[in-house]
Amino acid sequence: MKASVTEDCVACELCVETCPEVFQMGEEFAEVMEDEIPPEHMDAVEEAAEICPTEAIIIEE
Ligand code: F3S
Questions:
Q1: What residue owns the CA closest to ligand 1's atom 1?
Q2: Pocket of ligand 1 (CB under 6 A)
Q3: What is the pTM of this model?
Q4: What angle is formed at CA 44 by the lines to CA 43 and CA 50, rounded to 5 degrees?
């Protein structure tokens, strides 16, 4: 599973709070630190994608 953040991100930081192991804040947008999401963080990444207010987190299986 892979994840990415689009330019729709408004830097609300909810994803970083939900899964700091995978997301970090860049200068403008959140960034995904892992190329391949580790299995133990998949649930938290999916949750972050669901709660992101602008649906800026894209998940690819
Ligand atoms: Fe941006 Fe959504 Fe995260 S707005 S900071 S990608 S929760």
A1: 9
A2: 5, 9-15, 30, 48, 52-54, 56-57
A3: 0.96
A4: 90
Q: Residue 52 Cα, ligand 1 centroid: separation in angstroms?
A: 5
CA 59, chain centre distance (Å): 9
Residue spans per domain, the chain: 2-60
What pLDDT is stored for residue 42 in this prediction?
Answer: 98
- What's the CATH number for 2-60? 3.30.70.20
pLDDT along the chain (61 residues), means of 10: 98 98 98 98 98 98 85
- Kindly report the three-state secondary structure assignment for every residue of 7-45: CCCCCCCHHHHHCCCCEEECCCCEEECCCCCCHHHHHHH
- The answer to whether 25 and 11 have CB atoms below 8 angstroms apart is yes
